[in-house]
């Protein structure tokens, strides 16, 4: 098959889905790789390295779309790419379909076969780890007096106390943020709805952190003493309430910082809206907000190396085994199937956008096979199936 690596064109995005190392593996398996001109340059991988690895350089994205059986990128697909999608073409990216109805409509109209990468990770995405760790550092940057923060140093100085940090959500993102901030000396409180995770973290950090169950009341109780909040909660898109509303921000001192790493739309933070690296901060009720939606793009080299390595097995499975067999062998890949030849196959998107859907195992006619198990990607359910 012909595999095409697209250059990501979202504002402030510098990562690449496959580095020259992955190209070597794909070519060795007998496939042809096309790389869009400068697709990896910003991450430290110039065209010369792709050529040395065995890739063919395409000067435009149109060449990639027109010639490749499978195309892939890091982030979601944009309106300029919609007309280039083809029937039966395999498409891979962080589509975030539930929150992007126009993108989903384009995928359905094209009758392509699309996978959304964020649902494909068995052990969590390197992008999540990068977002948590780098998001913590951007929060500290936002705390600086020169950036509108109240000027507290994370670990304190002799005679001056350390920062009080609240981390909401203890998945891969939250644990990444905790690792960085605890190491730098912050006084950390973590909240989650899973007491098992809280118990595990308390033991891991030898009771040097505080843990609380996550709800609006517990958050309100600690906000007056909190210098920085990091939201790492994946908020169900059908919910209309918030963990932190605008009025609650008044409980914090002026110059405090809120980093919305999850950055869902809608999300858990009422005052949050997407920003970009060139203008990342704004202030609501005296609290400095940092809400960049693609934080990992700021550390494009390291994130690309980690992410490309994790995505390679999925890409190789699709290329070597085909879509159906890939979905039989790995339930996480199966649950990430988003559209298939004009049919929606993503449950959360069906529920949020009120579109009918069909289960991947049914559309692929593999329901009677021995399938690898994976839990649903979200708690959102839909019974809005296509009528037979």
Description:
With 388 residues, the protein is of the alpha/beta class. It has 2 domains: 2-123 and 300-363, Rossmann fold (3-Layer(aba) Sandwich); 126-290, Rossmann fold, CATH 3.40.50. The chain is built from 13 helices and 15 strands. The strands form 2 sheets. It has an 8-stranded mixed beta sheet, with helices on both faces. Strands 9-8-7-10-11-13-12 form a 7-stranded mixed beta sheet, sandwiched between helices. Helix 2 (47-53) links the parallel strand 2 (32-36) and strand 3 (56-58). Helix 1 (20-28) runs parallel beside helix 2 (47-53), helix 5 crosses helix 6 and helix 9 (300-321) crosses helix 10. 49% of the residues are buried. The model has no long low-confidence stretch (mean pLDDT 96).
Strand order of the largest sheet: 3-2-1-4-5-6-14-15
**What is the third-level CATH name, the topology of the largest domain?**
Rossmann fold
Oligomer: single chain
Q: Indicate the proportion of strand residues.
A: 15-25%
Q: TL;DR of this structure?
A:
The protein is of the alpha/beta class and 388 residues long. Helices cover 32% and strands 15% of the residues.
Q: Any key phrases for this structure?
A:
388 residues, alpha/beta, Rossmann fold, 2 domains, eight-stranded mixed β-sheet
Indicate the topology.
Blueprint: E1 2-5, H1 20-28, E2 32-36, H2 47-53, E3 56-58, H3 61-67, E4 70-72, E5 90-93, H4 101-110, E6 113-116, H5 126-143, E7 164-168, H6 172-183, E8 187-192, H7 195-204, E9 210-213, H8 216-222, E10 228-231, E11 257-260, E12 281-284, E13 287-290, H9 300-321, H10 323-329, H11 331-335, E14 337-340, E15 343-344, H12 347-353, H13 360-363
């Amino acid at each position: 098959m012909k595999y095409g690596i697209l250059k990501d064109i979202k504002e402030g995005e510098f990562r690449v889905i496959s580095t020259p190392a992955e190209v070597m593996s794909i070519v060795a398996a007998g496939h042809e790789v096309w790389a869009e001109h400068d697709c990896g340059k910003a991450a430290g991988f110039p065209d010369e390295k792709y050529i040395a690895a065995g890739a063919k350089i395409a000067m435009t994205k149109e060449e990639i779309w027109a010639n490749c059986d499978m195309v892939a990128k890091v982030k979601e697909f944009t309106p300029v790419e919609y007309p280039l999608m083809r029937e039966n073409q395999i498409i891979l990216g962080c589509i975030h379909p539930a929150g992007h109805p126009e993108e989903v409509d384009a995928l359905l109209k094209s009758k392509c076969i699309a996978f959304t990468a964020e649902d494909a990770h068995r052990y969590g995405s390197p992008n999540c780890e990068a977002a948590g760790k780098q998001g913590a550092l951007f929060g500290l940057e936002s705390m600086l007096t020169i950036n509108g923060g109240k000027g507290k140093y994370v670990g304190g100085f002799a005679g001056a106390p350390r920062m009080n940090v609240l981390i909401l959500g203890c998945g891969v993102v939250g644990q990444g943020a905790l690792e960085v901030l605890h190491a730098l000396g912050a006084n950390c409180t973590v909240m989650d709805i899973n007491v098992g995770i809280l118990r595990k973290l308390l033991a891991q950090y030898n009771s040097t952190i505080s843990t609380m169950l996550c709800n609006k009341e517990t958050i309100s109780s600690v906000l007056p003493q909190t210098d920085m909040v990091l939201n790492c909660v994946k908020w169900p898109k059908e919910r209309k309430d918030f963990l932190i509303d605008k009025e609650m921000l008044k409980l914090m001192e002026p110059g405090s910082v809120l980093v919305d790493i999850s950055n869902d739309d809608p999300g858990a933070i009422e005052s949050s809206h997407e920003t970009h690296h060139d203008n990342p901060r704004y202030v609501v009720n005296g609290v400095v907000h940092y809400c960049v939606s693609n934080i990992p793009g700021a550390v494009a080299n390291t994130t690309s190396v980690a992410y490309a390595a994790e995505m390679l097995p999925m890409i190789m499975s699709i290329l070597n085994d085909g879509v159906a067999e890939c979905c039989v062998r790995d339930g996480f890949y199966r649950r990430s199937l988003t559209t298939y030849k004009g049919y929606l196959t993503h449950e959360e998107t069906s529920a949020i956008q009120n579109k009918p859907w069909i289960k991947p195992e049914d559309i692929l006619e593999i329901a009677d096979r021995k399938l690898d198990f994976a839990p649903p990607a979200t708690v959102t359910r839909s019974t809005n199936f296509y009528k037979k």
